[in-house]
Amino acid sequence: MNEYRTERLGRLIQEKIGALIVERRIKDPRVTPFLSITRVAVSRDLAWAEVYVSAFTAESSLAKGVAGLQSAAGFIQAQLAGSMRIRQTPKLRFHRDMGIREGFEIVKKIEELNNNGSADEPGDPGPRSDK
Fold it and tell me: Mind listing the domains of the chain with CATH numbers?
């Protein structure tokens, strides 16, 4: 299948799974609305879809949420098959995506370095103005 079509299918799967999570149609207690589907990579032959999940909660609850989604993969796949018009619905594999959390940590470290750097130089006159 052409690359554009697999990307488009991945975005559609991401949207549908996200809606199932938000609407609480997945009854597993480990799956909370705080889970977010960050991206979906669909194989060229449409046999598999790698679904990456992130959360703003603790890492342990993310791991439990991913396990809950993996356990409900058959149900989710059946829901996708019923709502999408494709010949073959990909089998779903869920993975933790730590990218958002790592991004927040990097930004926090940069802010700390900026704050520490300005506090260490008390004699610094600040920006010059050449008027």
Answer: 3-116 (3.30.300.20)
- Which residues are CB-contacts of 77 (< 8 A; sequence separation ≥ 6)? 89, 90, 91, 92
| pTM for this entry | 0.78
Quote the DSSP letter at residue 52: E
Answer for the pair 39, 97: CB distance below 8 angstroms, yes or no: yes
Distance CA 86, CA 78 (A): 12
Tokens representing 3 are 């690359």
pLDDT per position as a tens digit, 26-67: 999 999 999 999 999 999 999 999 999 998 788 888 999 999
Nearest-angstrom CA–CA distance, 89 and 34: 26
Question: What CA–CA distance (Å, rounded) separates 70 from 40?
Answer: 14
